[in-house]
Structures are given as C-alpha cells and as structure tokens.
Amino acid sequence: MILPLLKITLYKSFALFRTGRKIKPIKSILPLLAMSILPVFIILRAREMFEAWLLVPQLGASFMLSFLSSALLGLFVVLILSGFPHAFYYLYLAPDLSLLAALPLAPRTIFLQKFIEMSLMGCGAFIAVGLPLMISMIWVLGGIIRAYFLLLLLFPLYVIIAGAISALLSMALAAFLNVRRIRRFFVYLTGLIIILVWAGLQFLRLSRLNPLSDDFDADMVSRFSSFFANMKFSAFPSDWLLQSIYSTAIREPERMIIPFLCLAITAAVLTRLVVLIRARSRDFSNPEIGRVFPAHPHRHSKGKLFASLFQKEMTLIFRDARVLQSYWIITAMILVWPFIQQRQAMSSIESGIDLLPFLGSLLLISLFAGNMARQTVPNEREAFQYLLSAPISIRRVLMAKLLAQSALFAGMSTVNVWLTAYRFHLFIADALVLWLCMVFCVVIGLVVGQTIGVLFGNYHWQDPRQMLTPGWNYLSPLVSILFCGLGLAIFAALWQVNQIVAFLIFFAYVGGVFQFGIMVSAKKLTKLEWI
Questions:
Q1: Comparing C-alpha atoms, which of 447, 477, 480, 453 is closest to residue 466?
Q2: Which residues, 6 or more positions from 180, have their beta carbon under 8 angstroms from its beta carbon?
Q3: Is the Cβ–Cβ distance between 88 and 186 less than 8 Å?
Q4: DSSP 282-301
Q5: Rounded to an integer, what distance in angstroms lies between the CA atom of residue 396 and that of residue 306?
Q6: What angle do CA 310, 313, 314 make, to 5 degrees?
Q7: Is residue 118 within 8 Å of residue 163, measured between CB atoms?
C-alpha cells in the first residue's frame, strides 16, 4: 500500500510545475529555468576554483576534499535544524493525518509516507548548493559518467539521514512539549540560522581562496589548511557521501564500498526507527484542526473600519511564524547590504547625485516588498470573500494591506539609508534623496506585488509556495524590478535637467502605478467566483 501513497507524494512534489492534469511545457520550463540559475552559477565558479587548486602543489586534491567535506557537513547541520518545523508538521500537524487514519492502512505505512514527504523538503537545499559542488568535483576529476549516476543515487540517503535526526529529536520534544508551540519556536530558529549563514557568506569571499582570482589571499588559504588538518570528518554522513563519489570519480571503486554501506545502512536504520516510534504512539490528532484564534479587543470604535482593517493585517503578519521568519530574513539582508556593497565617493547634491552605486539596494528592497505583498490577499484563502460583503470598499481593504506592509518596510528603508550614509559619509541632502527614492521603490514593489497576487493568486493552496500560479512565482520579482527600474531611469534622466521636475515626475509615476494597481486589483476581486 505504500506505492500509491508515494505516487501521491511525488505528484504533490511536482505540483509547482503542473497546471491541472496536463503538463503545459511553457509553464513547466519557466520555473525550472529560474530554479537552475543558482546551481549553474555555483557549478561554473566552483569548477574554476577546484581546477586552480589542483594546479597548486601546496593545495591539490586533499585541500579540495577537506573544503567539500566541511561544506557538506555545514549543509548537513543546516538540514537538521531546518528539518524540525517540517518534522512537526508532517508527523503531527498534517491536515490529512486524520483522513489517512480512517483508511485501512497500517500506521507504519502512513508515517513512512509522511517521513519520505518530509525528507523531500530537504532535497531542495542540497540540489541548490550541495549537488553543484559535487558535480564540479566530478567534472574537474575527469567527469566519469557512473559517478554522476551514483551521486543521484546517494544524495537522497544523505538527506534522509538529516531528516531522520530531525524527526527523532522532534518526537523526543513532542513527548514533553506542545507540538504547535515548539514548531513555532523552530520556525524562528530556522530563520535565525538562515540569517547568520547568509551574513557569514557575504563576508567570506571564496574568491580569496582561488589562486586565479585577483582577491587571492595566501594567508587565508594557510588558515583554512590548518583548520582542515585539525578537523576529522570521517564519522559524518557528509564524508561518507564525499568519499563514495570521489572514489568512483578517480576510478577506485573498491574504496567506496565502506562509505557507501555506512550511508545506506544508517539511512535504513534511522528511517525504520522513526517510523516505528511514531507509529507506536498512534496519535493522529491534529491540534490545529478546529482551533479558534482568540479574539483581540478592538482599540478603535466600530465606525473606524479602516483602522480595524489595519489592525487585522498586523495581526495576520505577527500571528504566522513563517511570515515573521521571512521578515526577519529580509530585515537582515537589508541591514547587512550597506556593509557588503562597494562604491566610489559620491558627489554632492549640487553637482548631481549618482544613484547607480545604490541601484542594487533600491531594486533589492523593491523586490522584497513585492514578494511579501503578493501573499497578502491569497494568504486569506476563501475567507477573503467575507471582506467583500463588509460595509467598506474593496479599495480600502487593499490600501489597509499596503499600509501594514509599508509600516514594516519604511523602518527597514530608514535604517538601511542611515547605515549607508554612515558608511560612505554621505551629505544629509544626498541621504534624503536616497531615502525618498527608496520609499518610492517600496511603494512600487508593494503595489505591483499585491496586484500580481490578486491576478494570479491561488486561493485553494495547501503549501505556502503555491499561493501563486507556478510561473508567476518566479516572474513576479522580474516584474517588480522592471517597474522600479523604469521609475528610477526616468528620475535619473530628469535629475540632470531639473531636480524639482525629476521628483514631481517620479512622484506622479509612483502615484500612477499605485492607482492603476489598486484599480485592477479591486476590479478583479469583485469579479471572482468564490463558490
């Protein structure tokens, strides 16, 4: 009976690339192309660096193996920590657990399917980072075909081991603590880990380890060599995976037998242990089904509906741990960005401001604003239809959502500009111009993102990643950047002619985008068939 369940699991995993029962090639290819950008970039950069290491006698294959072993171990730890929220959800909180329990299925079969579904969530991180590094290693070692096939066979075992450790620790915690509350805590913890990893990678430039790069730092290579020499990774699944693939790539298959067996046996034993322990509890209850959120007393009178809508939006933002995690990550990226960007001294406002060095900051915050705003309407699912019957216009409902998002991004923008002005010693007038441009970009990103969310929203989503139709999950950031870039281009072109006119035209452009987005969204929402 496990095969039909696994078929459903695979069908759900590929749901992002499907629309209905028939696969549409264009809508399937666009998400795949967008997702392949990062892995392809890592493969090209890592291959160049690995080839340079093999040409240096002091480094060679040993340094490459040590680097990859530590990188895979770090990824293994991240998979374990990020697997806690998935373990609590799939093993305890999944909406279909009660339905599966009513079927003539053994508990072990049900939780084996749930564990496999949980483990698939970790494959994305490995495919984005770990798989490109391993492919680059095989490439520089000769590109033997069977090494690639072995990699595709073994990396799921590596991910399953990490998921099993997360599941075992999650079940231990669930025996003593509230499942829903501890899951929320680990969602916050995962967000913090992502922030720290991202910030650390921004200051750790791998180009300093590449002998062919202008940024090559021999002292850093020496420190890394000393660090690798003092660390022993052979007892970890990350090293078992690496040794198996490396032995196959250098055509010494006899050396891969022991690490291969260690990887396979550990994955099988841990999977069996997770399924047995969880099935023995026979607890299929879902604490989130039928849960009623406590009503918060309104601080405003009943007549001030707009203020009540704004309060509702802020409640929705701070109630969902996943949304808060996204805001944490975005805030960290925006605050770290001024310290990792490079630019020349900026001219004073009298001689003309140069926005080009800050174009990355402006487009980045517009992209983030659009990504968060596009979820505001689909996040309410079919419950949004009740707002349409409230004694308030749909335009005000949409504006309340934009105002709640603007309140959060305005604070991020202000701190970002302050840090930028402090680091690059900007004049007050220059910082003010940059802040106004950033506020305009935030408004553009929010309006464009919300409009896309309304036009291409999926109000029957089961996974947060399915709030939009498949293609627009990846096209919406490009549209936000396009509208923001067009406004900045108009502003920069008119700035040299007349500064006041430039601001007025830019303000009019932002106002036009705002009015158009609100009008299109309101018209679309009133025509939706909710039943």
A1: 453
A2: 88, 93, 287, 288
A3: yes
A4: -----TTTT--PPPPPPSS-
A5: 7
A6: 90
A7: yes
Integer Rg of the chain from CA: 26
Round to whole Å and give the CA distance between 487 and 481: 10
Rounded Cα gap, residues 148 and 140, in angstroms: 13
CB atoms within 10 A of CB 371: 19
* 147-205 pLDDT, tens digit each: 888 888 888 899 999 999 988 888 888 777 777 777 777 777 776 776 666 666 555 55
Cβ neighbours of residue 417 closer than 8 Å, sequence gap 6 or more:
431, 434, 435, 438
Tell me the helices (H) and strands (E) count for the chain, helix number first: 20, 0
The amino acid at 44: L
The model's pLDDT over 59-91, given as tens digits with 9 standing for 90+, comes to: 777 778 888 888 888 888 888 888 888 888 888
CA distances, 343 to each of 203, 242, 333, 354 (Å): 16, 40, 18, 11
Which pair of tokens denotes residue 419? 């840090």
Q: What's the N-to-C CA distance of the chain in angstroms?
A: 35
| Of the candidates 467, 445, 464, the residue with the CA atom closest to the CA atom of residue 455 | 467
pTM for the model stands at 0.59
Nearest to 162 by CA among 130, 206, 200: 130
Residue type at 188? Answer: Y
Whole-number pLDDT of residue 161: 92
